Each structure stands twice: as C-alpha cells, then as structure tokens.
Amino acid sequence: MIELSFPAKFRWQMEHQLGASYPAFIDALQQPLPVSIRVNPQKNGLPTTALEPVLWCDTGFYLPERPVFTLDPRFQAGAYYVQEASSMLLAEALRQTARLERPLRVLDLCAAPGGKSTLIASLLTSESLLVCNEVIRSRVPVLKENLEKWGLPNVVVSNHDPEDFRALHGFFDLVLVDAPCSGEGLFRKDPEAVLEWSEENVRICAARQQRILTAAAPLLCDDGLLLYSTCTYNDDENRQNAQWLGEHGFEYLPLNLPEAWGVVDKTVGYQCYPHRVKGEGFFLSVFKKKQRSSPEMAVPRAFRSLKPVRNWQIKTLQPFLQQPDDFSFYVKPNGDVFAIPEALSADLRVVDAALQNKGFGLEMGTFKGDDFIPSHALALSTAVSRQLPGIELTKEDAMRFFKKENLVLNESVKGWLLARYDGLNLGWLKGVGNRVNNYLPKEWRIRMDIKEY
Ligand SMILES: C[S@@+](CC[C@H](N)C(=O)[O-])C[C@H]1O[C@@H](n2cnc3c(N)ncnc32)[C@H](O)[C@@H]1O
Q: Most buried of 27, 48, 328, 363, CB within 10 angstroms?
C-alpha cells in the first residue's frame, strides 16, 4: 500500500490540508503516471489531432502511453519536450499577466533541465532575451543541450549563484524562480523524493527559496513580474514564501482559471493536485514589483571576449542562415564562431559584462584554414537556412545517425548535408564519394541498443 510508504508527518500534513479529499489524493498517487509532451511551435508540427490536449497550454498534449523517447528522431531533433502537464500552467499564467507581444528581458533563475525555459522561449517574440541560469555546474550541460535542441537563438545559458546577478539589478521584465523544493508533488514520479523528505529538509528548502527570492527581487524593472513556482504542496515553502513576497514590495496577481481545470486557488497562488488535475503536484504564484527604483544601465561598446570575424568569413557564414542580415558574426579566442541577433546586441553586451560564466548567441561552428565546420547547434537551430542541401533518412538510418555510425548512400555526394527525418534537421553529414561522415558530437551519441526498439 503506497500510502504507508509515505512519511507519517507528510500523511498528517496532507490529511490536514485536503480534509475529505485526502483518500482521493492517495488513490490518485497509485494510478499510472500521465505522460505529456509540449510540441515546439517553431519546428515542424507533430500530428497532434488525435491527442488529448492539455487545457492550459495550447502546445501541450497527453500521450496514451510512454514511448521510448530516446529512440524517436523527432525527440532528438527538438520537435517536442517531455514535460509533466501541471507545470505547463506557467503558459497560462504568462498569457494572462506578461504582455508577451512586447520584446521582454526574461530570467529563468533555476533553469535546469530546461522544461520551463523551453516553454517560455516559445512564447517570447524573437526580439526578446531569455537568460537561463543554473547554479549547479553539472546540470548546465543538459540545460544547454535541451535549449540547443529547442533551437532558438535569443537565449543565454549561465552558471551562477542568484546573488551573482547584482550587476543586473533592474534589468529584467520577468524573473521565474522555479525553486528547488521538497518535491512532494513528484512522489508518484520519483520515489527518491519520498526518501529525501524530512521536516528538516522542508525547513532547509523554505529558507533556501527565500534566499533565492531575495536575490531575484532587485533584478526586476519597475512593474516587472516575479513568478514563483515549486513542485511541492508544502505550505511552509509555498504559502510562507508567497506571503513573504507580498510583504516585501510585491503585489500578488490573481489569475482567472476555469473551475473545470481543477486547479485549487490557495489565495497566495495556485496548486495542482493529482486527484484534481491530470499531472503532478505544482504550485505557482505571480507577483508584480511595486517599488520604483530601476537604475539606468550603461551599455558597453563591445563584447568582452568576442571579436568580429573577417569579411571573407562572413561570406562563408551567411548562406547557412535563413535571415543572415539579422545577425552579426563574432569569434571567441578558442576559434568558435557565433551569430549574435542584431536586435539583442545591446542587451547581450550588458549581460556579457555582468556575468562571468555564460554562453550566448547561435554557435555557428569553427574555421579550419579556409574550411568551415558547422556546429550541431546550427543544424538544430530554427535560424538555419532552409535552402541547404539535405537528405531525408529512414527511421533506421536516423537512429544509426544518432548511434554515430557512418551511413552509406546510393548516390555520390560531396560537402555538407543536413541529415533530416520527417523534414526535421538532425545534424550534419559530410559527403566523401558514396560514403558520408557523421558529424554528430560524440556527447550526443545514443548509447541505448537500437535493436531493443
Ligand atoms: C525545480 S528545479 C528546476 C526545474 C526547471 N525549471 C525545469 O522546468 O526544468 C530547481 C533547480 O534549482 C537549482 N538550485 C538548487 N539550489 C539552488 C540555489 N541555491 N539557487 C538557485 N538554484 C538552485 C537546482 O539545481 C535545480 O536545477
């Protein structure tokens, strides 16, 4: 009986919180986990008409069962992200409060592995800037990989403690604190979360969240929005910290959510419970900054360690992009070439000066003598030219591509080719006679045996 495997204090807390609906909550935790995905609107659409929609996110859908996502080339190409449905409530909260049609500066302060970052990225205009930060270094590569798959060039990935953002006080229109928490809402999905739960850990999480919110608050401009979310039901974390924001210069913004969605209004935020919402536990509240104190931000004239590329190199790079005039090209001291969106150049120079550990712009590739080696990120980017030569692979060959095997083609090809599946770019091949070399980065190689499929 799953109920008995929960800590007694947790059971007591939930009984107290839910009253008569506690048995329904426990029963829901014993049901199979719902599987949901969010499709990437900037990439080729998946056939979704037969799928059950997630009502609060127009790109979210439930799947009837859980496939082996790793073995789906469309997943590898960033056509969708596997995300638990309750947390997609963020889409509706942003739609109601954030005036997304304007260019915005957005910070996702606790971003790895990137579920909410990819959701936000797809809702912003192309002139908006999204900074995705993760403090734990070992979690940055997965964040970077997920954002590269998602393919949008207006994203910065950084690796900093929230307090390191001091030089960006007043800079952001919107900050999301999707805080590290006691994870009660993930007990069905992640049994480890049950083992880690203790009253002491709840206290540590609540205090940590307050420290993160304290660092996040000054980063907002006048009237900026602070979104605070967790995947727990715990009032010591959610309620206490939301109330604290209300007492420290923030106005709570209620949302208008249809009764039929089952989301519970907790007066300082909104809670999803698995017996009411088809998804896991998720808490979200939206606040608007009341103080008026935005400092003027000086814009540096140049990027710290990027130099413009040479003119002949620009001519080589431009044909790789669909709209090359929207970008300027720079090279790092290590030789990596980046395309920086013109519309974001000033904001990126500010971020570049303020943060030490970050990467931004679209990674184009490197020059080896006169030859240009395009990067994997460029193949997956929504900005890559649609006129480049490519080859549509069968599913078997697409999986061989992701196993990093060399493919044999019927015809002889020369030069760079985009490997495609279902019209989606998977990565680069280089034709040498009737063999093609596979340029998938080795760290992206699938280790799973494809015969299992
Ligand atoms: C709930 S997870 C974020 C999930 C992510 N937003 C998503 O949707 O995929 C919380 C994140 O906060 C990070 N974190 C842990 N301690 C932190 C701290 N003191 N300050 C900021 N972030 C922290 C964790 O490493 C973790 O990646």
A: 363
Band of residue 410 on the pLDDT scale cut at 50, 70, 90: confident
Residue with tokens 């083609």: 409
CB 169 near ligand 1, within 6 Å: no
pTM, full prediction: 0.97
**For residue 225, what are the β-bridge partners?**
174, 288
> How high is the pLDDT of residue 367?
97
Three-class SS of residue 282? strand
Fold adopted by 2-289 = Rossmann fold (3.40.50)
pLDDT category at 297 given cuts 50, 70, 90 is confident
How far, in Å, are 55, 244, 260 from residue 51 at the CA level?
A: 12, 40, 19
The Å distance, Cα 4 to ligand 1 centre, comes to: 29
Distance set, CA 434 to CA 1, 411, 440 (Å): 60, 6, 19
Q: Is 178 annotated as a binding residue?
A: yes
Lowest mean pLDDT among 70-74, 204-208, 352-356, 444-448: 444-448
Which has the closest alpha carbon to 83: 3, 221, 189? 189
Please tell me if the CB atom of residue 180 comes closer than 6 angstroms to any atom of ligand 1: yes
Structure confidence at residue 449 (pLDDT): 76
Ligand 1: distance of its center to the CA of 371 in Å? Answer: 40
Kindly tell me the burial class for residue 414, based on how many C-beta atoms sit within 10 Å of its own C-beta (0-12, 13-18, 19 or more).
exposed
Helix (H) or strand (E) holding 358: strand 358-360
Cis peptide before 113 (omega within 30 of 0): yes
The alpha carbon of 20 and the centre of ligand 1 are apart by a number of angstroms equal to 33
Could you name the CATH architecture of 298-375? Roll (3.10)
**Is 422 known as a binding-site position?**
no
Q: Which two tokens stand for residue 285?
A: 């509240």
pLDDT digits (tens, 9 = 90+) for 255-272: 999 999 999 999 999 999
Q: 334: buried, middle or exposed (CB in 10 Å: 19+, 13-18, 0-12)?
A: exposed
Say if residues 170 and 198 touch (Cβ distance below 8 Å).
Answer: no
**CA–CA dist 449, 279 (Å, integer):** 30
The secondary structure of residue 44, as a DSSP letter, is P
Mean per-residue pLDDT for 40-68? 94
Q: Where are the domains of the chain?
A: 2-289, 298-375, 389-453
Give yes or no for a contact between 25 and 18, defined as CB atoms under 8 angstroms apart.
yes
**CATH class entry, domain 389-453:** mainly beta
Question: Checking DSSP bridges between strand 327-331 and strand 264-265, what pairing results, if any?
Answer: unpaired
Lowest mean pLDDT segment, chosen from 37-41, 148-152, 170-174, 443-447: 443-447
221 is catalytic: no
Q: What is the pLDDT of residue 2?
A: 59
